[in-house]
Amino acid sequence: MSAHDDDVLDFDFVEDATREVQPPSGGRGGGGGGGPRRPHLRRDNQNVTPLLRLVALIAFAILVVVLLVVWVDGCQNDQQRDAYNAFYEDIGAVGANSVRIGKNLAALLTTPGLKQADLEQKLGGLVQQQQLGVKQAQEVDSPGPLTPAHEHAVEALQLRVNGMQGLLDTFKETASSNDATAAGQQLAARAKRLEASDVVWADLFQAQADNTAAAEGVDGANAAPGSVFVANTDLYTAQSMTAIWQRVHGASTGGTPTGLHGSGLAYTKVLPSGQQLSPSTETTIQVSTQLGFEVGVTNTGENQEVQLEVTLTIPRQTTPIVKKATIELIDPGETKSVVFKNFGELEFGENTTVQVGVKPVPGESNTSNNSAEYPVIFSLG
């Protein structure tokens, strides 16, 4: 090898080393195509990674906002629901007390032997109780959207005050009257406010409150409470009020019941089958959890009768089953029924009886049709 060759080799080595040290230019050419691409890939990754982090942070922030909105909405709905339920509980307590006043009024008007002075005193007390209920209802705190419904609840209670006060005033004004029919019509007209109060409560308070809760999107709120003052509308008809006025006046003058008074058994049926029991023919009764007896009672007299007591007895070897029910009011010639259920353990396959009796009303002379004994056999099949 000549000196020239050494020079060539040295130059080639240096040139090769220089080429290896210098970064590739991204070159064009066929050899080593993979080498030039790596730096480009690293730079792309370096650009993409911060972008992905930014996207993740934005997504996380959106999630946090969404969860925060859901939580706030949930808290607001919980607060609304609690406010609605608290209002319903408070106004419902007032309404329930008004229901009791209505029952007491019905019991007062159907009290046998009730005198004018006692009626005025007790009816005046019921008016005062209901006036207190109006005040309590006004003081109940209601959510803003329920304010109109709340006002209607107060209106319903005020109608009950007005109706009872009207009855009291009419009884006083007609105390010396001899026109029972006119007095009864006046009493019935005043009593219409009591029936109207139930409509106002149901339609303008109860239904409106439920609709408002639905429109406001209040989830989980209780239903608006009901309040029925007049459980028996028959009590406040002109015919019934006339008879009540007559009974009160008769008792106030110290007189004994006049005219024909009477009550009698009309029928006794097995429920739910509808079998009619016979005093002369034995009846097999299929026992089920729905077993019951319907007893019909007819007013056989010429006067309205109140508080008719009906008793049903089933003898057993141990303690007999005795059940009682009361017919609040019944007009002349009218038939009303009571239902007895829940008899517990019965004795199967043995001859027994179902005994039914109606307590005689004041002034009743014929009691032969007030009781009956029906032969039966209870069967589990």
The number of distinct helices, counting runs of at least 4 residues, comes to 6
Kindly name the structural category. Answer: alpha+beta
Helix-strand sequence: HHHHHHEEEEEEEE
User: Which residue ranges are poorly predicted, with pLDDT under 50 across at least 5 consecutive positions?
Assistant: 1-21, 26-33
- Helicity range of the residues? 40-55%
Largest sheet: 5 strands, mixed
* Strand elements, count: 8
Report the C-alpha radius of gyration, rounded: 44 Å
> What's the domain count?
2
Q: How would you describe the overall organization of this protein?
A:
The chain has 381 residues and is an alpha+beta fold. It folds into two domains: 70-252; 263-379, Immunoglobulins (Immunoglobulin-like). Helix content is 51%, strand content 17%. The chain contains six helices and eight strands; from the N terminus they run H-H-H-H-H-H-E-E-E-E-E-E-E-E. The protein has a five-stranded mixed beta sheet, with no helix packed on it. A three-stranded antiparallel beta sheet has the order 1-3-6, with no helix packed on it. A hairpin with a 6-residue loop joins strand 4 and strand 5. Helix 4 packs antiparallel against helix 5 (180-215). The protein is flat, with a radius of gyration of 44 Å. The chain starts with a helix and ends with a strand. The relative contact order is 0.09. The model is unreliable at 1-21 and 26-33 (pLDDT under 50).
Q: What topology does this entry show?
A:
Layout: H1 3-21, H2 37-109, H3 116-139, H4 147-173, H5 180-215, H6 238-252, E1 263-271, E2 283-286, E3 292-299, E4 305-314, E5 321-330, E6 335-341, E7 351-358, E8 371-379
Parallel strand pairs: 2-8
Antiparallel strand pairs: 1-3, 3-6, 4-5, 4-7, 7-8
Helix pairs in contact: 2-3, 3-4, 4-5, 5-6
